[in-house]
Write the C-alpha cells for this entry.
Amino acid sequence: MKRPWVRQTRADDIPELIALQARVYPAIPPWSRRKLREQLEVFPQGQVVAESEDGIVGCASSMIVMWNDWAESHSWKEITGAGTFEHHNPDGKTLYGAEVFVDPDLQGQGVGHLLYEARRTLCRAMNLKRIIACGRLPGYHRYADEFSAEFYAQKVVWGDLHDQVLSFQIKEGFSYCGVIEDYIPEDEESRGCASIIVWLNPTYNPNLPTLIPEEIPL
C-alpha cells in the first residue's frame, strides 16, 4: 500500500471523519457535522487529514489561542467551545492542538507522525510561537489506584512506564508541562486527566506578524 499523505480537510470529508472518530473513541460521542463545518469555516488552515488509497486514516484539528487566557486551567469543552472553535483568535501566538486521531488498524505505522509534522509545518508557516496540546493518558486507568495522574505522567517521562499517547508525544519532540484534571471527564481510561505538552517553534520571529496563508505547504 502506498504510504499515507496529508492534506487540508475538505467539507466532503466530514461523514468519513465522523465514522472514523467513532471507531477510534467508541465510548466518546463523535463530533457532529455542524461542528466540523464550523471548524472548517473558522480556521480551515488548521484542519488536516491523513489519507491513503483506502480513504481517510487520521485527522488533526487545531486553532489559534491567546494562551494566557487558558494557561492556568481549562477543559477541552471550554477551550474549544465544545468543538465549535469559537475561541479561535488569529491574534494569538499559540497553535492549540484540539484533536488527533488515527485509524486503530494503522496506529504505530507513522500516520500520527505525519499529522504532528503537518502541525509543525503550519506553526512555522504562520510564524506562531509554539504548539500546545492536552493529550489523553489512556494508560493511567491501570495505575489510578496506585498513584496520581501527575506521578503517572512523570514516570512516563522518566521512561519507567509507557503511555500510548504521552510516550508518542515525547518522541515527537514535545515537552511535558503538567497534568490538567477534568479535561475530558467522560474519558474513563484517562480518568478525565490530560497532560499539557508544548513544542517551541525554532524559527519563530517576534518581529514579524502572524501569517495566515490560504493554503499550507504540506
